[in-house]
């Protein structure tokens, strides 16, 4: 098990980037953009969008709603201002549908 010592004054983002560094983030962006391109669609996810997407995914484990789309609804009991201001529902859905962390054409190396 990996233990990360807590240091005073460090932000949650600093701890997160210890596990999801720039190389991993770049891989996710590359493969997330590559996947729709293979279906003749534009994949134009940026590193910033990927970070926002990951933040919403992590937040959804903490602030749960029955359906993910409820974060963008206007009802007070489900709307999440932080999420709706950070990324649009359609953009989040596009990234979620295309989110990849490896190249599908090169999967056999993982099974050998």
Automatic annotation (TrEMBL):
Residues 11-107 form the PiggyBac transposable element-derived protein domain. It comes from the Eukaryota. It holds the Pfam family DDE_Tnp_1_7. This is PiggyBac transposable element-derived protein domain-containing protein.
